Amino acid sequence: MFSGLKERINFSSKDIDSESFNEKKSNDEKLTNVHFNYDNFDTMDDYEYIAEYADEYNPNGLPIATLEDKSKYRNIKVRPTIAAMLILICEFAERGSYYGTQGILTNFIMRPLPEGSTTGKVMPGHTGNAGALGLGLKDANALVTLLQFLAYVLPLVGGYLADDRLGKFKAIMIGVWVGILSHLLFVIAALPPVIAKGQAALAPTVLAILSLSVCTGFIKANLLPLMLDQYPYRTNVLRREPTGEVVYVDRDGSIGRLTMVFYWSINIGGFLQIATTYSAKRVGYWLAFLCPMLMYCIVVIAMLIIRPHLKQEIPQGSLLKKAILVMKECMKGNFIKRLKNKEFWAYAYPSNMETRGVLAEKISWTEQEVKDYKSTFTQCLMFAYWVIFNLSDTGLGSTLTAQAGAMTTEGIPNDFFNNFNQIAIVVAIPTLDYVIYPLLAKYNLTPKPVIKIFIGFMFGACGSMVSAIIQWRIYETSPCGYYATTCDEPSPLTAWYEIINYGLCALGECFCYTTAYEIAYTRAPDNGKGLVMALFLFNSAISSAISEGISGALYDPNLIKPFAGIAGVGGFFAFLFLIHYWNLDKIMEQEELEREQARLEEEHKLAIHPITSATSTVPFDEDNEAELRSAIQTFSK
């Protein structure tokens, strides 16, 4: 009747009899000559244990590791689960289909059909670019900008619904099915009979753009959090290996590696843009849009396979509703004074509210939830720094393409060079993960998150400065001087200089974007991970709006100033971020400890509850009574 009750109650006990465990440890030590740390868990009286992680070699569960344990024990990172690897495949295919479509959309909308073509391809013996609808640059820019903007705004909807009622998997599947419809509409719009109708093909194109935005909104906010949810441990723990060695399981390092691989898969998928560009030019747009659709089918298949391998997920209700109530409470009284005294959020602690005479039954949140809302709010403020980085990170992308066109390209399309952003990331991430970071860790020089982000911001600022210098050299060497962009004769400078900018910005992304993804997931409460990820992505929409707003100033002879200005502002905000968030790692560690302590206290309460219900509803026999008393005695210890 009460089988397993003792283990459920004693989630943090170190007093359970472990003779068999010690005997096994002794035998393991006799069988191995490797000199590792063989501390006995049973002597770790100051540790809290998590019983749900118990296994053959750790019968009491796993102790929660401390900061000192990281230097005491060998550090290991957990390998990705099958579910995590399938999610990586989904991200690769989804981003590949998105970038493959986006990359050919401008020419499809802007340029007319090439002479003699019915599919949009350039006919043999002719020069020029592929085209179809012939609506001009203005309409093309408007529709492509709409796609980019909505793709970073709608994740707010997808993230909220996933946290509140759907769950991440169901929200992603909504995006998956809408995505199939979107790619099908693109293929229909690119069929020769449809293109032949001229602007009538605009209707399926617009519907395809809108549905692709919805698809991205539901997938992008939830896919990375879903993958990181598959990590087996909720905090850093100590674990005894089959050899008897005690190791430090580094949760932060494991999640950091998963995040970097996730970002790597995004950029691997981005190479499909090269294939779709050449397909449009040499075969036609029906094939150029069909390729992303076929790749997108991988997403559907992988998501259907993945479901049985996922951890069970129960939506807890989005933090947004309750956070609004907490914010209203914090705004009462002299909140400005509390802001100055750093007591703004403490005003909504249930204990403080009860002291002020508020009835406990009218308080629907806990102290830990208030702390979670504070963490979420401060994250949103921190994410604002990425608005500036995004402008440095090829935020003026069309200007860079025009810059390459003003130089000697030697027959290479001027929009080819932006692919070096993906190439640099694909090379840099494995180098950082398997060479640079392990080497730094060997000498105890592992960079803090704030250092990684600072380095990333500085790379972005340096990239903009390089673009300013290149633009100056173009003006100095162009036959048309400071009106080089529209000059018929290019500057003798080689366009290969553009890869310096793309490479520096790519390195910046490897440092600051991957770290931001990790922080967004780690600091967010369980019922707010999708929303927090969406809030981070929303900064790209803000950057796009700013870029659109200043586009009117991007013309000769003033193109040096935007690059130089963004470089200066980016460098300034990089140092400001470094100063402002120097202790970010300590804050995150404290938040994790508080969250884990609150979770253990909740489990403690749940462990006591079954006794009460059992004693009131279950008739005892002698065996049941003896087992219950034994469980209570163990809990008392």
Automatic annotation (TrEMBL):
Q: Is Membrane tagged as a keyword?
A: yes
Q: Which GO terms describe its molecular function?
A: transmembrane transporter activity
Q: Which Pfam families match?
A: PTR2
Major site of localization recorded for this protein: membrane
**One GO BP annotation of this record:** oligopeptide transport
Give compartment(s): Membrane
Query: Per its UniProt entry, which superkingdom is the organism in?
Result: Eukaryota
Offer a single GO CC term for the protein.
membrane
- How the protein sits in the membrane? Multi-pass membrane protein
Q: Where are its TM segments located?
A: 142-162, 174-195, 201-219, 261-280, 286-306, 380-400, 420-441, 453-474, 499-519, 531-551, 563-582
Keywords from the named record: Membrane, Transmembrane, Transmembrane helix, Transport
What PROSITE patterns has UniProt attached to this entry? PTR2_2
**InterPro entries noted in UniProt:** MFS_trans_sf, POT_fam, PTR2_symporter_CS
Q: Which family does it belong to?
A: Belongs to the major facilitator superfamily. Proton-dependent oligopeptide transporter (POT/PTR) (TC 2.A.17) family.
Protein name (Swiss-Prot/TrEMBL): Peptide transporter PTR2
